[in-house]
Here is the input.
Amino acid sequence: MRLVEWGIPAGFDIPIYGGGIDTWPDNPGKGSGFDRWPMTPLGLATTAQLAQRGLRPRNALRPDALQIGPALLDGAPVPINWAALRGRRGRFDWEREQEWWYEIVGPLTGDQFGFTYPCTSLYAEVHAQPLTQPPSPDEQVEDRREAAGWADSVLNDPRTLILEMSTVGNFDVTDPLERAALCEIAICTTRGKLLMDTLVCPTWGNLPTEELIALGLDPHAVAVAPTFRQLRREIKTLLADHRVVSFGRSRAYSVLFCELEYDRGGDCLEDGALAIEHVDILGDLGKSIFECAQLAYSCYLGQWNADQRRYSLCEHPAPVASAAKRSAAVLELLRVMAAQAPDRYLDLCQIAEEAERSGRSLRRIETQGERRIRLARARDAVLNRAGTRCENPSCPDSGYLQDVSDKGEPLLQVHHIEEHAQNGRDHPDTMIALCANCHERVTRGRTRKQLNEIFRTAALARHQKYVSELSKTTR
Here is the structure.
């Protein structure tokens, strides 16, 4: 499965590493922007590397990282005199630069050189499974729950937007009049409110009438629609600092990359090629986090493809419809998945209660002093219940919603209403998820006693509500 069809995934919210960046032919050197990706660390491998050892990724639809490069020339490693090339680095006379390229590369390529930097999915070797072994029933259940939990998190995150597009052309050509071009775009909130719903003129000399009609679009209406250049600022403003969910993440990202590339230079480089001008485009796209409903829903369905050794990719729920209707279909798909997410709360509570009955939460461990062991499942249950918001019913701070942790998790902390060190319960009905401000107030503030009683009532009420509602749905 190829996650990226055009450009570099600056906003995919997983670590991105570079393969042999110091040997990239068109990397001018340190500080040029091409050193934005650190070198790939040990412990990560491609599917091909794992297969050589008789292994497969734990879940091929959930890569742990991406690697850009190494550079290829016509699909093969680049046979260049690197010593001669490095001697030219650090000089930014671009006219002279082209002459240097002909001197160094021309003899190898007949003065024709085009480099690509493939984007490859990487997986943690420690989680790899035997090559021909399908996921166990427990692993499939966990994958389904993770997908449902993801859907629940994006639906409850005020930063989430649903993005759907229609395009003409394709990604396999460099001709500006044949490139993949945007001809319709819809952006909506998780409540279904349309923030943008418009046709987009591709600015081609001759519009592909038959292709537009096949998409259900009026060619004349497309011809007189605003161009991407006219909509660019509005689109960038809408998407900046948001989680952008599309049914096909790589395609949506690729379309935006291609449009920004063409808008800046009036042309677009072939698939995978980079130039120094692309750094600004990567910066623009990196302001958003792009996420994929197709991958999550495929994990949710869990239909194993033995030949490809991964879950089968599902089809779009509304493949032939307007962008607005497709965005509504994706939103409904997210709601279907998220409806299963709260089940995990009951599971975690049950595990915590079993551990509590067995006495595990009463055991003590030695640190510099001594403290009681805390149940990770009880903490996980509280965070699952909270979603992305502080559970203080009168929390005045919304600033923590504008950011997430390095792992992409909400910036919330779990507070024990009954002092855990003094034998208080380690159970979700006496625990509450708080932002850092509210946690600090109840820990050290002058009104902490009053706050703690408010939190006691709020935590118990939320726990009882979840248990009551979920018990009805599981009967």
The chain has a mean pLDDT of 81.
